[in-house]
Description:
- This protein is α+β, with helices and mostly antiparallel strands.
- The protein has a single domain (4-220), classed as Phenylalanyl-tRNA Synthetase, Chain B, domain 3, CATH 3.50.40.
- The chain contains six helices and ten strands; from the N terminus they run E-H-E-H-H-H-H-E-E-E-E-E-E-E-H-E.
- The chain has helices at 8-12, 33-49, 59-71, 81-90, 100-112, 194-209; strands at residues 4-6, 17-25, 115-120, 128-132, 138-141, 145-148, 153-157, 160-163, 180-188, 212-220.
- The strands form three sheets. Strands 1-4-7-8 form a four-stranded mixed β-sheet. Strands 3-9-2-10 form a four-stranded antiparallel β-sheet.
- Helix 2 (33-49) packs parallel to helix 5.
- The chain is globular.
- The chain starts with a strand and ends with a strand.
Amino acid sequence: MLDIAVCKAFAKANVPVTLGALHADVTVTEPGQALGEALDKVAAERLTSLSGGTVGDISQISETRKAYKMLGKDPSRYRPSAEALMRRLTQGKGIYRINNVVDTNNLISLKTGFSIGAYDAKSIEPPVVFRKGETDEGYKAIGRGRLNLENLPIFVDGAGPFGSPTSDSERTLISMDTDELLMVIIGFGETPDVSAALEFAAERLRLYCYAKNIRSDIATNRPL
Length: 224
């Protein structure tokens, strides 16, 4: 299990953090029919739940936006991935299909409201820390070019930053060669239900990604 340390600077900035991590052996494939139907079902359920409201009303998203503001980052310019995914849904653009692991990640995010990182665990160089991005830090983000990481909450390993709730780096992306997954559910605020999200995620990884040897852990800077 890859341990993740939460930097003390979050607590000093009054930003409660709870991370739910899953480490598992997986098999990456093209998206199958069962997963596609499940993703469509969850997307339809989320659209129904948003009827008469906005994406920003979802507690996990509002807490993430609040955390960004407290850290000095504009959440409307650097949207958390869960918010971006749901806004895409409400705009009628649909949910793109990549592979079974990425699609399962999106399914879990739509269901739970959390921004979630999915990483090729073998591309990560421990130790891993979750901290605030520093001046001039950045990386080539998946599908969007260089991402300015200053003041973003980010995951950093021995080789540098590799992930954030906004967009992850190309260095640790899930490819068809990935066989070991680190998935991190990123919760902010005082009461994120990360434990339930971890259980839901583990079940879907077993079902759609042939996950084995699943290990889970929670890292937090708040009382449990």
